[in-house]
Amino acid sequence: MISFLLKGLFRDRSRSLFPFITVLAGVVLTVFLHAWLTGTVSSMIQSTAHFSTGHAVVMTRAYAKEADQVPNDLALLGIDTLITELNRTYPDILWTPRIKFGGLLDIPDRKGETRAQAPVSGLAVDLLSEGSPEQKILNVKQSIVSGRMPSRSGEILVGEDLAKKLRIQAGDTATLISSTMYGSMSITNFAVVGTVHFGIVAMDKGTMVADVADIQKALGRSSVSSPMTSIIRSARPP
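Structure (tokenized):
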């Protein structure tokens, strides 16, 4: 009986081949969509933690109430002391200071006149200190499209799409026009040493990445930092 049934299935494709193809297609589609959605959600969470919120954020209560507006005049004071205390209390977490800021990026021509301008959303992280985890957290080196990593004070990276829009090349000078924590105007020149592509549209189109010490100086906050982001240490480097 079993032999008879098997012969009937294999000889009649409507009973064997087509159902098999249908089931196979359904399984492949289900597995693919599940893997794709799981990877997308995981990537979004990881990107948000690395570039924006961290796994935990330390900020003042006043800043927390208006965090969406990035009120840097309400940011933390005494960062060095605070980081030392946090590292001693929570040694399993990587604590690193960051500053989020906004401004206008002005690109001068050979005569020093404005050639192009665009609003930018800035991210200041610890790029120059020895042993800083930020390069691994943000995956900066692997994201560089042209140019090189900043190696000294006064050097910045800009998003690849922003660089194309403003026709910026490595070696150009860019002027950041922003405001200090006291409300006065801040105008600071930086050297663009490279362009980066993080794969995040908003960052690639309008972000500049600078060393936190340069931005503290530029915005009149030598002892101030925006909310301090922490990244939980994992078994593998970020």
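The longest helix spans residues 17-53. The radius of gyration is 25 Å.
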